[in-house]
Amino acid sequence: MTEFRIATDLVAAENDKRAAALKSEYEALGAALARRDVDIEAVTKKVSEFFVAVPSWGVGTGGTRFARFPGTGEPRGIFDKLDDCAVIHQLTQATPTVSLHIPWDKVDAKELKAKGDALGLGFDAMNSNTFSDAPGQARSYKYGSLSHVDAATRAQAVEHNLECIEIGKAIGSKALTVWIGDGSNFPGQSNFTKAFERYLAAMAEIYKALPDDWRLFSEHKMYEPAFYSTVVQDWGTNYLIAQTLGPKALCLVDLGHHAPNTNIEMIVARLIQFGKLGGFHFNDSKYGDDDLDAGAIEPYRLFLVFNELVDAEHRGVKGFHPAHMIDQSHNVTDPIESLISSANEIRRAYAQALIVDRKTLADYQDANDALMASETLKRAYRADVEPILAEARRRAGGAIDPVAAFRTSGYRKKVASERPVSAAGGGGII
Ligand code: LRH
Ligand code: MN
Ligand code: MN
């Protein structure tokens, strides 16, 4: 029996207030979509089956390089974090898994599994951390990790990744995400070729230790913390990594890890075409790796990414099952509310992409009708699919309006009385 952190009666009472309005809005949308030959029930079913993982590190208040302003009732450790993740899933019914970061979330794996089971949560990809030094660690990652010039430092970084796989095996994860901060701040500081050779050799050792039913995701990022060069800087390098390592190695696309104006949806299409799209870290950004809430800045771009995913689904691309994960940092909002809203935005983009008239779009493309091709996408994007999202949540036992239900529940106030205020202070949060 799943332990619920928010009383189910409260969710039901909140839904009762909104059920009649939702019913009529859902029917009206159903009728409008039927006129376009779209079956609302089919879309609602697909949306209900679409899930995205919450990052354990996202439920605490984030920070910048300059400061961190803690919120109230912040999780004290991974068990509190899992409680918060369970609230997000209870209300959205869209986030049944959590992605852990080691060593931040390192505790006894059996206890992790038991806590996850009690809350009805599973575990998505494990994330290793060789971009900062853990207390007591023998060698520093100040000058790199998997690509470090020193073999013993590289070996330590490999060993850490193997430990992440072991923890992941014990809790039912099936993937490891590797993001490294390795790079350089000055021209000449690092030999690009040698650094990448060392990285590939280290990753090959990790790949060798990967169970058969696991996937290894490498995550590229253009810059930061290194500001002149980065070892895994873009999707081209990432593709080379995945291609060199083997079939279980795939590319992870964090939406915030590209230069402004990069055509990310096109990168997604390319990786799909060549069988190397592993998954996503969803978030939004204006300038760099801003880690803002999904859909907060460029919802149309999120839709265009999903348009590629649905196109692949529609074409029946073999073995296509990218991992959907969120990677955000919440500095000015309640992290639970931001993650609830982000999960909904991601589902919204999916629902809108599902109602694109693909046959008509293909015809316009073949006829070189640029205007009408664009209009065909826009028509789907402009549809207000909120009733579909709300109905999917309601049917699964979630909340019609999950942020409102969260606020009414008083959850944050309750945990604030149990959890001491955490330290404010300088930055250092990536
Ligand atoms: C790096 C990154 C990566 C880390 C996370 C905390 O910027 O996106 O995914 O694991 O942030
Ligand atoms: Mn990321
Ligand atoms: Mn990032």
From TrEMBL:
Lineage: Bacteria, Pseudomonadati, Pseudomonadota, Alphaproteobacteria, Hyphomicrobiales
Protein name: L-rhamnose catabolism isomerase
Domain of life of the source: Bacteria
Species annotation: Rhizobium calliandrae
GO MF annotations, alphabetized: isomerase activity
Keywords, comma-separated and alphabetical: Isomerase, Manganese, Metal-binding
The Xylose isomerase-like TIM barrel domain, residue ranges: 100-290
NCBIfam families associated with the record: L_rham_iso_rhiz
One Pfam family matching this protein: AP_endonuc_2
